[in-house]
């Protein structure tokens, strides 16, 4: 039997930003009546591909066809008019209006310029009933939980839903719709997706939850570093194979590090977390970090690595469990509490959560130390300049000018400034979330060597990286996360390979 014609086909897609080729000759196709997963780690190109398809970003190369006809989509409105609808993770509706009003906002049935409210409510009720949803369309949207609001957003995206009318959308894009839903709510969403699939709607589904991909999807396309890795039927590619495709094996070669002791010495416990967790963030976990130990966290994007780190730093508040440092229970009510306890945190997003680009190198480096002292006790100028000069030299920050604006530095040097900010506070535990992302190979090697040196000097490090070889190279113990759970803690050693870690990520159990 011949394969049906794709409802959507993207061929040779190219998208470039200044200095970056975000998509390179990517092909993607979507068939009517299928649920298709778009997979890839952060930076793989998923969001860029969706934004090109929906007219948010102009196309730099390649073609898009709908129902076999070439189209040029220059705006989200044009995408919607062509039958491509998108529902994002954040519901963008009006909670003060009724469900019916939200479904038809901007396209209400009118007569002589007046909205026909009875007809609007009737059509809305008919549409949600046909889709198998138990929703009172006259109730305020705010009276329903997030999961139902998300279903309403999907209903709105599908078309007007008049009498006997098939839903208007040919392609429905669902971008991380399950990230804030519990299991029952996910099942409700999946039921709606299957109904739409049966009606012939093609659904592009983006999620970081592997089990959900295998539960609801028919086909998947995998991207890595802006290129197409492959298209597969879900039944033809197991989870281990999928993880290997997403992460890749050619992670890039670094300068050789000095031999790093794989098993840390019998240092005393520095920090212990007992049943620490946050609803919607990460399931309760136990974790012990010893003095001088490097704990690496491995897992796919969305697995809970950053959520774990933020709990330990007090950036998010736990609703279960406790933390002890040096055997004494501490309250991590806010980052200041963590800093006072000797914990430092370099966020993965150094631009929006770390550096202040309009301030100088000196001002950025001194920020955390000054905050820990309080703004009424300024650091003496001579001492401040001595500290800054010391870390500019130690980390080889270039240019070696404390008055240079941080926003004008390269990514690698910006990361070094952020590291200097925390090292100057002399922390007991340094949390590094993706410290080598987006920087050149030389700066990456320097930062990894620094981690080894800090560990040998007795500092504990919690190290998060997407590249498994990087985690294996540096860590004494590897914590593996999947679907926001810490599923394994593995002592590093010669027998621990990237394949073993990949298998643990894929299965949720240490092999």
Unreliable stretches: 161-167, 249-261
Fraction of residues in helix: 25-40%
Major sheet characteristics: 6 strands, mixed
Strand order of the biggest β-sheet: 6-9-10-3-11-12
* Proportion of beta-strand residues: 15-25%
Terminal CA distance reads: 41 Å
Number of helices: 17
From the spread of the alpha carbons, the general shape counts as globular
What would the average pLDDT be, to the nearest integer?
Answer: 85
Helix/strand structural class? alpha/beta
Number of strands: 22
**CA-atom Rg in angstroms:** 26 Å
State the assembly state of the protein chains.
single chain
Task: Explain this structure.
The protein has 511 residues and is α/β, with parallel strands linked by helices. It has 17 helices and 22 strands. The strands form 5 sheets. The chain has a 6-stranded mixed sheet, with helices on both faces. A 6-stranded mixed sheet has the order 18-19-20-15-21-22, with helices on both faces. The radius of gyration is 26 Å and the shape is globular. The two termini are 41 Å apart. The relative contact order is 0.10. About 4% of the residues have low confidence.
Quick structural gist:
The chain has 511 residues and is an alpha/beta fold.
Helix-strand blueprint:
Blueprint: E1 8-17, E2 20-30, E3 35-39, H1 46-53, E4 61-66, E5 69-71, H2 76-81, E6 84-87, H3 99-104, E7 110-111, E8 114-115, H4 117-130, H5 146-158, E9 171-175, H6 183-198, E10 202-206, H7 210-216, E11 219-224, E12 227-233, H8 239-247, E13 269-278, E14 282-290, E15 294-298, H9 305-313, E16 320-325, E17 328-330, H10 335-340, E18 343-346, H11 350-353, H12 361-373, H13 381-394, H14 411-423, E19 429-433, H15 441-456, E20 460-464, H16 468-474, E21 477-482, E22 485-491, H17 498-507
Parallel strand pairs: 3-10, 3-11, 6-9, 9-10, 15-20, 15-21, 18-19, 19-20
Antiparallel strand pairs: 1-2, 1-4, 4-5, 7-8, 11-12, 13-14, 13-16, 16-17, 21-22
